[in-house]
Structure prediction request, 305 residues.
Amino acid sequence: MSKSQNTLLIVLAFFAIYVIWGSTFMLNKIAVNELPPFMLAAVRFIIAGVLIFIIAIITGKKISISKKQLLNTTIAGFLFLTFGNGVIVWALKYVDSSFAALEISAQPLVVLILMRILEGKKIGTGSVIGVVLGIVGIYLLVSQKQLISQENSILGMVMIFACLVSWAYGSIFVAKADLPSNYFVNTGYQMFLGGIMLLVSSYLFGETWSSPISWSIQAQYSIALLIIFGGIIAFTSFNYLLKVVSPEKVATSTYVNPIIALGLGWYVLNEQITMQSIFAAIILLTGVYFINTKKKIVIFSRFRK
Prediction:
């Protein structure tokens, strides 16, 4: 593959994790209002995983993997999908989709802190400023009285943050783990195995399953879009980017995701956008900008001189 083709592929992959993933909060919110959360996530990822395997076989790709790769894809599937996504879908029963997206926008901050703890990576001046701004933004976001007064909203906030940590650690783990070399096959295993674990979770939590025929048109369309775009296309792009760029850069999808989620939540779901949420979003995203923009770090370095 030529350098220009590789660059184009990276740009398209970033578009997928920026824009498509921004819309998944709305789609999950629509579906979870009608369907049990773990069942919803299990159906989405198992079907997506099976479709990926079918496409891989048709196009002549090998889907056989080693025992080590099977273990690693299982771990990644749990961190990203079983816990990292399944619990977020559950939390959407108690918080708005736009709020969830804003809270998750702190992911680059968590990635940075975990890389410091686990790998000893030095945190530069700009990144320190970004972490401080991120903490302030999160506090402003979760301290809104109209949000914390809602039933189980605090529990939802806490669980979303736990999912955030799971995704952040998963990003670091996948960047160095022995995984299938083909990104499409890698995605298929993570989705299928993550979906199976969600299926078990759904059974353990006693969720009631129903036939897709009985679902509303809105729920059917939402899950179809989540499977094809939010699952197969965007998650394959995510796994590809984790191998060709740094985890911190992949985490910058949180620049755009909250904006897309805020707009769709307001326009489609009639979710309220408070001034405090907007202010918190600006501070959070500014913090993420400081973390991921080398130019800012250079400026502050010169200022100290």
About this structure: Residues 147 and 184 are 39 Å apart (CA to CA).
